[in-house]
Design a protein that fits this description.
This protein has one domain: 3-Layer(aba) Sandwich (NADH Oxidase). By secondary structure, it is of the alpha+beta class. Helix 2 crosses helix 6 and helix 3 (64-71) packs antiparallel against helix 4. The relative contact order is 0.22. The chain has helices at residues 11-19, 34-44, 64-71, 76-84, 101-104, 118-142, 155-162, 193-196, and strands at residues 56-61, 87-94, 146-150, 168-177. Helices cover 39% and strands 14% of the residues. A four-stranded antiparallel β-sheet has the order 1-2-4-3, sandwiched between helices.
Length: 200
């Protein structure tokens, strides 16, 4: 029998994860510690992925030198975000994730061969690392950190700078820290249920 909450999540949790959470563009200089990043990861890792494949790989960019390398890879409007944020995480995806399935999915020893087709492996890595990136954002918010997801970057440049010679490619970036209201846009509209949902 699955685990069922005795009561729905309270309003504070809803606010922290969704209603009150924003995508920040500017950052306070408050440090993000190694322990905080480890705790975020330790929450994120329990989110489901196909065959527990867990293809996401994470690079925490925080030194001045690493930030300068990453700044060269992003669009002009995103450069200040990288410079200001205490940490920017590169969420990558390992194209050879299936090599780790004997460890991650031990009850099906043949699982590593399920993804022998290159296109299937690519789509699986992209889909599931995207899921893990979303779990990471929710875990960070739950641990008291603000997030600024970024897709405006040159993937080829990021991969050359941070994943050269490996089987990992970048998926998206996410700035982390404590956001400020500077350059914070008014909250954008969202669809209503009836706009995008149907029953069959």
């Amino acid at each position: 029998m699955g685990q069922i909450l005795e009561a729905p999540a309270n309003e504070d949790v809803k606010r922290v994860l969704f209603h009150g959470a924003r995508s920040y563009n500017r950052w306070a200089p408050t440090r993000v510690t190694d322990q905080e990043l480890r705790e975020v990861f330790d929450l994120m890792k329990w989110g489901p992925t196909s065959a527990n494949s867990s293809p996401a790989r994470f690079v925490f960019v925080r030194s001045a030198q690493a930030k300068a390398r990453l700044v060269r890879c992003v669009s002009t409007k995103n450069q200040v975000k990288i410079e200001q944020a205490p940490v920017t995480v590169i969420i990558g995806m390992d194209g050879k994730f299936a090599d780790r399935l004997p460890f991650l999915f031990p009850h099906a020893p043949e699982a590593r061969h399920w993804f022998g087709d290159d296109e299937l492996a690519r789509v699986t890595a992209l889909r599931n690392s995207s899921l893990q990136g979303a779990y990471f954002i929710l875990a960070a918010r739950l641990m008291g950190l603000d997030c600024g997801p970024i897709s405006g970057f040159d993937q080829t440049l990021v991969d050359q700078e941070f994943f050269k010679g490996s089987s990992v490619q970048s998926n998206f970036l996410c700035a982390l820290g404590h956001g400020t209201e500077e350059a914070l846009y008014p909250r954008s509209p969202r669809f209503e249920f009836e706009d995008v949902c149907t029953f069959e």
